[in-house]
Write a structure and sequence with these properties.
about 350 residues, alpha/beta, seven-stranded mixed sheet, two-stranded antiparallel sheet, 14 helices, 9 strands, about 20% strand, transmembrane helix
Length: about 350
């Protein structure tokens, strides 16, 4: 009797151990599939936005200029409706129409995906530039806020000289802690007096282009407007007569003022090889240029789209994207083709 009970207990222990092993195996398989699914979603979103931009620019620039963007899955192009994604030659000649088409299609294709993050990580992007031989002497961070971007990039480009520029005077104490040189200056297309909107509780939205959200709504008592003197990037750095230095790497995150700042810094821009910009897909800042207009203008200045760094969403709707641009004649353009194993003539 006792021996039978022992055998029965051993049998139950064996069944229990088998069940635990089966559950562990299923859990491991689920985690593995979940990771694959997440990676696939991230890759898909990157491809969707990249392919849309390529489709819209295809008629207005030679193929080699967009080849370096690593569009490997050309089948996605065939899934884009010609009416919504491919502009005619006459439409492409109109930068404002092009801007609207680009923004509408990017938003439409991306709205069904839940990914919201950096693709790739900023640090990895800078490390890749280093591997391709890029060593900028001067890096300028416009819209530095509290200096987190410069602090992060400085870890990669440790031998570069960093210069931060921020429009909000309230950020001075935070900027001082970084030990990186900075200037408080409101930059734009020309030197003039402008209306500047600010909200201490949402200071990242401070701009001459009023943010179209509840944080800057007319009924929000925290929002204030003031008249400030605006200068240009060229004037601030002494261009064209007495330039302080040549800017190699330029980053601008200025709540809709990016294109105006570039227009006011065209002499500075001549020396820039890598450019990072925040561009709007939706009208996040009232009256500010949208992504298509910015891309078209930069193309006319010799820049080509190089990478997509970040997606930002509101209620699962894509509204802003961070783009990286490089000069077509810079060696980074050729090196990107080599990494992608693409031959250009």
């Amino acid at each position: 009797m006792q021996e039978s009970r022992v055998k029965r207990n051993v049998r139950w222990i064996f069944y229990l151990a088998t069940l635990i092993a089966l559950v562990a195996s299923c859990l491991s398989l689920y985690i593995s599939l979940k990771k694959q699914s997440d990676n696939h979603s991230t890759t898909l979103e990157h491809q969707l936005v990249s392919e849309t931009v390529q489709a819209h620019l295809k008629n207005s620039m030679p193929a080699p200029e967009i080849a370096h963007m690593n569009f490997s899955d050309t089948s996605l192009l065939s899934s884009i409706s010609p009416n919504s994604a491919m502009a005619t030659a006459s439409e492409m000649s109109n930068p404002l129409r092009c801007s609207q088409d680009v923004n509408n299609t990017i938003a439409e294709l991306s709205s069904g995906h839940s990914v919201n993050g950096k693709i790739p990580d900023l640090t990895k992007f800078c490390q890749r530039l280093c591997r391709r031989g890029y060593a900028p002497k001067h890096i300028v961070d416009i819209g530095a806020h509290w200096g987190s971007w410069s602090t992060k990039v400085q870890r990669v480009f440790s031998n570069s000289n960093f210069h931060m520029m921020e429009a909000n005077p309230q950020a001075m104490s935070k900027l001082q802690r970084t030990k990186i040189p900075y200037e408080i200056a409101l930059l734009g297309e020309r030197e003039e007096s402008v209306t500047y909107y600010s909200n201490p509780s949402a200071s990242t939205g401070n701009s001459v282009f009023r943010e179209a959200t509840q944080h800057f709504d007319e009924k929000n008592r925290a929002v204030s407007s003031s008249t400030r003197q605006q200068t240009t990037l060229d004037a601030l750095l002494g261009y064209p007569n007495e330039p302080k230095f040549t800017v190699d790497f330029l980053k601008i995150d200025a709540q809709g003022s990016e294109l105006n700042i570039l227009r006011g810094g065209q002499n500075v821009l001549k020396g820039v090889s890598v450019l990072l910009l925040e561009c709007s897909i939706l009208q996040y800042n009232r009256g500010a240029p949208l992504a298509g207009e910015v891309i078209s203008w930069l193309h006319s200045k010799g820049f080509v789209l190089h990478e997509i760094l970040e997606f930002n969403r509101l209620n699962n709707v894509l509204f802003q994207v961070d783009f990286a641009f490089i000069r077509k004649e810079h060696f980074l353009f050729e090196n990107a083709h080599k990494d992608a194993k693409i031959t250009i003539s």
